[in-house]
Amino acid sequence: MTKTATFHDLEGKSVFITGGGAGIGASITDGFMTQGAQVAFVQRSDASGFCDEMEAKHGRRPLFLQCDITDIDRLKSCIAEAAEAHGPITALINNAANDKRHSAEEVDEEFWDWSQAINLKAYFFACQAVMAGMRAAGGGSIINFTSISYMMGNAGYVSYTTANSGINGMTRSLAREFGPDKIRVNALAPGWVLTEKQLDMWATPEALAEHLSRQCLKDHLAPQDIVDAVLFLASETSRMMTGQAMVVDGGVVVTG
Predict the structure, then answer these.
(1) N or C: which end of the chain has fewer CB within 10 A?
(2) Residue 1 domain flag
(3) Residue 237 maps to a domain
(4) Structural domain of residue 58, as residue ranges?
(5) What angle do CA 49, 129, 169 make, to 5 degrees?
(6) Domain Ketoreductase: where (predicted)?
(7) Is residue 157 among the annotated active site residues?
(8) Has residue 253 been placed in a domain?
(9) Which residues of 201-234 are buried (b: 16+ CB within 10 A; e: fewer)?
């Protein structure tokens, strides 16, 4: 992980990341550890090997807690365990999501509920669970990952894009509600970041070329581009920024 900027206030900060052991989430964990933060993360699959890598690189391990974030009771207990280990969580990154492709016709109630549970419901209850600790600590930063998919009106995963849009509404309302306690809540909307999963499943040469043609900046996004934005939003550098949706996509969509 490249250290493109130093955010001095992140050193020692108690950080909690969902899905922090793979894909973009793993890069975020690495990025915070590079800044000297104390990182805890949850993931459904075993991330022991990744923790070994982080320990070899940074001289300390992130706290890995195995968890399916749709199990809200388990998610809450993991947040409590992380706070006990590292102190009150003052940076929450709701990163875990599942963008499984599907047509509207094939969606049944069970799939819809599962998709909303992982892509929206868990985000809210994680925000709720860290609020008291952030208030006691004198403030904090919550970063909710959304996507440009709903802004583009993309077809092929309507339940996912519905949740993405819902994340933005939730972020704005929580920013208003949590603001008096100096808790900032922002959304981060990445474009098409070329993780291993994306390259394996969907990034055909034709699809990549077509998407790149939409970007103002003609470089594909890498995980580092998202990590830098997350670190900025978590740090006091962005202390007066809340209730916003920050887009990092190379210039595909425009906001405002």
Answers:
(1) C
(2) no
(3) yes
(4) 8-248
(5) 100
(6) 13-205
(7) no
(8) no
(9) eebeeeebeebeeebeeeebbebbbbbbbbbbbb
* pLDDT tens digits, 18-37: 999 999 999 999 999 999 99
Among candidates 115, 98, 119, 117, which has minimal Cα distance to 107? 115
Structure tokens at 212: 């790149």
Question: pTM, whole model, 2 decimals?
Answer: 0.94
**Number of domains into which the chain is organized:** 1
Q: Which of 123, 150, 157, 160 is catalytic?
A: 160
* E strand or H helix at 208: helix 205-214
CATH number at residue 117: 3.40.50.720
Residue 256 in any domain: the answer is no
What string of pLDDT tens digits covers the 256 residues of the chain?
566 799 999 999 999 999 999 999 999 999 999 999 999 999 999 999 999 999 999 999 999 999 999 999 999 999 999 999 999 999 999 999 999 999 999 999 999 999 999 999 999 999 999 999 999 999 999 999 999 999 888 899 999 999 999 999 999 999 999 999 999 999 999 998 877 676 666 667 887 888 789 999 999 888 999 999 999 999 999 999 999 999 999 999 977 6
